[in-house]
Specification:
The protein is mainly alpha-helical. It contains 8 helices and 2 strands; from the N terminus they run ααβαβααααα. The radius of gyration is 17 Å and the shape is globular.
C-alpha cells in the first residue's frame, strides 16, 4: 500500500542496490520470462545491468512433473505438498515457494542418478521437448 511505501527508498535506489546484489548470479523464477521483462526494464531505467542467466521453474516443472494437473506455482505447491502458509502472489512468499519447488526438482534429479544437476542442465531441461526429456536425462546418468 502507499502507507507501507511512505518511508521506503526510491525505486531508483532500490534497483541500483538490487543490481549490485544479483551482480553476475544466476536467477530462478516461476514463469521467468515474465519476471525477466520487468527486471530488464527496471534495470535499464537506472542504467544498470546484470550478467547472470535466468532459469524457469515453470518450464522445468512441465518436463519433470508431467503428471501435475497444472503448473501454476500454487497448484504445484499443493501437488508436491510443499509446506507453506497459504500466501501467494506476494514477492517473498512466491520466492520461497519457487526455491522450495526448485530444490525438490534438483533432489528428484539426484534420486534419478544425476549427482549434481547444474544450472545449465536445469535450463536445458526447461527447453527440451517433453518427448525428448527421458533421452536427455538418461544421457546425464539418470
Amino acid at each position: 500500500t502507499n502507507i507501507m511505501l511512505r518511508d521506503a527508498p526510491s525505486c531508483d535506489e532500490v534497483m541500483a542496490q538490487f543490481a549490485q546484489f544479483i551482480a553476475g548470479e544466476n536467477l530462478v523464477a516461476h514463469n521467468a520470462s515474465f519476471d525477466k521483462r520487468f527486471l530488464d526494464d527496471e534495470l535499464e531505467r537506472v542504467s544498470a545491468a546484470y550478467s547472470g542467466e535466468f532459469a524457469c521453474s515453470l518450464l522445468v516443472s512441465r518436463r519433470l512433473n508431467q503428471d501435475a494437473p497444472s503448473h501454476k506455482l500454487g497448484d504445484l505447491v499443493r501437488f508436491k505438498q510443499i509446506d507453506n502458509d497459504g500466501v501467494f502472489h506476494r514477492a517473498l512468499a512466491d520466492a520461497e515457494m519457487t526455491a522450495k519447488l526448485w530444490m525438490l526438482m534438483v533432489n528428484d534429479l539426484q534420486s534419478r542418478g544425476i549427482s549434481e544437476p547444474s544450472f545449465a542442465l536445469m535450463q536445458k531441461i526447461g527447453k527440451t521437448s517433453k518427448s525428448a526429456i527421458d533421452k536427455l536425462l538418461s544421457s546425464q546418468g539418470a
